[in-house]
């Protein structure tokens, strides 16, 4: 199929959930469509525009803004338009409730724009009905891959977690290839005191089943068994168009995803260039995770003891001024890292994809958010898996047990359950060594590099994701006529 003016006839509206880990892949997805000639518009609230504009870069994508409910209606403080400023559990629930009030403003935009399709995040369950009001299909985007989607669907349908007698008793996920064992402690834990979230997830599931289908951020070769299972056994209509992060091709695009970086990109590249290929460990726990002082100290000691050069992204302390000592650093840590040029600490937002894709990076310590998981795959690096919440335990299992490019730090408990004891420095040191040196590391690196090549082929002309894009456009076009 030739892509060009005829695609321009199609207009798609993208409506990302207001969290960095959802906004970034959704904007990347819109960029995938725009690059193939589709007219793309992103709808969001005012305060999220700067991050979205940065990520859009030079792509031909419009932004339409809608107003977030007033502080009176939402009960949220002024300026709270992203989950990053609503991390406390009570605030988070209020935030989720407030997003229900975005329905009318979104429908107003649909009325004005008359698009052919609405791609909306899973956290907007009402979006299927909104789209139906205007006679257009709604597609769901979770930003996830097939494996976590299959686990979520099977645990929801068969509820194996209700048949065990404790949080620690293992169960096998029914109707899922690969004998996947989990415990109740590793499943997303819903806040007990408020039914809003539980209800939202139920409605999200119902609206997904009623929707036109699901866009998956993955590529077929990464998880063929689960791609087939999701579509053929679980009966979902799905198109895999990923990895969407590969739409950023050059260093500038890679460094401009999400927030403004807390480090000068050139300084960061210069530091990386001074290191041997595959020698650096990149350590980052996503856009939201803030650790306790005790845990940060263990990480610092573990990284130092590993003897490997590292870039460590620390969300806590990001606001401190340069030169100011952080009380949780082990004695003399910053000085030793500075003198030996061994460690680069980024306090705040890091240009993650730019760093991961640099040839000096040889391993990634990750919380296993799906975006980070896939970005690690694209970079072809083995990973230390340190899951904490959401569906991260499933993604960690995928890396360690299925594609076998990950080594766990042994966490067993969802962070919302108290998170257990801090992971000790010896465990961190050992896990880092296992992905960086020796035969096991080399074998994992070889597998990771192969997957990275497959990912890149998947998004090129004739690749599996490129072809699935064509099928989706055919489906939308025949529906539009
Ligand atoms: N990210 C980044 N710099 C940071 C932290 C995160 O660029 O300092 C990006 C990362 O590349 C990924 C996204 O933010 O695309 C985080 O998504 P993920 O699913 O990994 O985790 P979440 O933040 O949703 O827990």
UniProtKB/TrEMBL annotation:
This is Glycosyltransferase. Gene3D superfamilies: Glycogen Phosphorylase B. GO terms for molecular function: UDP-glucosyltransferase activity. Keywords: Glycosyltransferase, Transferase. PANTHER family: GLYCOSYLTRANSFERASE, SCOPOLETIN GLUCOSYLTRANSFERASE-LIKE. Its EC number is 2.4.1.-. Belongs to the UDP-glycosyltransferase family. It holds the Pfam family UDPGT. InterPro entries: UDP_glucos_trans, UDP_glycos_trans_CS. PROSITE patterns: UDPGT.
């Amino acid at each position: 199929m030739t892509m060009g003016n005829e695609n321009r006839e199609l207009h798609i509206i993208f409506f990302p959930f207001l969290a960095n880990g959802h906004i970034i892949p959704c904007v990347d997805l819109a960029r995938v469509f725009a690059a193939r000639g589709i007219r793309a518009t992103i709808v969001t609230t005012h305060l999220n525009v700067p991050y979205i504009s940065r990520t859009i870069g030079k792509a031909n994508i419009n932004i339409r803004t809608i107003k977030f409910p007033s502080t009176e209606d939402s009960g949220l403080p002024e300026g709270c338009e992203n989950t990053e400023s609503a991390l406390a559990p009570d605030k988070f629930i209020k935030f989720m409730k407030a997003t229900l009030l975005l329905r009318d403003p979104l429908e107003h935009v649909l009325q004005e724009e008359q698009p052919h399709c609405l791609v909306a995040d899973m956290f907007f369950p009402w979006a299927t009905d909104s789209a139906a009001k205007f006679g257009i299909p709604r597609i769901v985007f979770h930003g996830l891959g097939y494996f976590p989607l299959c686990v979520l669907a099977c645990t929801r349908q068969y509820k194996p977690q209700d048949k065990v007698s404790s949080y620690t008793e293992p169960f096998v996920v029914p109707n899922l290839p690969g004998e996947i064992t989990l415990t109740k402690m590793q499943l997303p834990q819903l806040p007990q005191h408020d039914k809003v979230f539980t209800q939202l997830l139920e409605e999200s599931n119902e609206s997904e089943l009623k929707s036109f289908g699901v866009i998956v951020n993955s590529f077929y070769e990464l998880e063929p068994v689960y791609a087939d299972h999701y579509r053929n056994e679980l009966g979902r209509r799905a198109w895999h168009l990923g990895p969407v992060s590969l739409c950023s091709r050059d260093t500038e695009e890679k460094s401009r995803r999400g927030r403004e970086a807390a480090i000068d990109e050139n300084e960061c590249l210069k530091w990386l260039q001074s290191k041997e290929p595959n020698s650096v460990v990149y350590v980052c726990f996503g856009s939201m995770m803030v650790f306790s002082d005790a845990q940060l100290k263990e990480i610092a000691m573990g990284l130092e003891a590993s003897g490997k050069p590292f870039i460590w992204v620390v969300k806590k302390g990001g606001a401190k001024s340069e030169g100011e000592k952080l009380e949780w650093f082990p004695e003399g840590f910053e000085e030793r890292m500075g003198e030996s040029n061994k460690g680069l600490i980024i306090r705040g937002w890091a240009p993650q994809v730019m760093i991961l894709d640099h040839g000096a990076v040889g391993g990634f310590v990750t919380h296993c958010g799906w975006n980070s998981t896939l970005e690690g795959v694209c970079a072809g690096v083995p990973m230390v898996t340190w899951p904490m919440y959401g569906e991260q335990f499933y993604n960690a299992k995928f890396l360690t047990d299925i594609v076998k490019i990950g080594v766990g730090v042994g966490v067993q408990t969802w962070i919302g359950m108290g998170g257990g004891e801090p992971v000790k420095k010896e465990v961190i040191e050992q896990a880092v060594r296992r992905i960086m040196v020796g035969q096991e590391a080399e074998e994992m690196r070889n597998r990771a590099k192969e997957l990275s090549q497959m990912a890149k082929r998947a998004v090129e002309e004739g690749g599996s994701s490129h072809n699935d894009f064509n099928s989706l456009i055919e489906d939308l076009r025949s529906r539009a006529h």
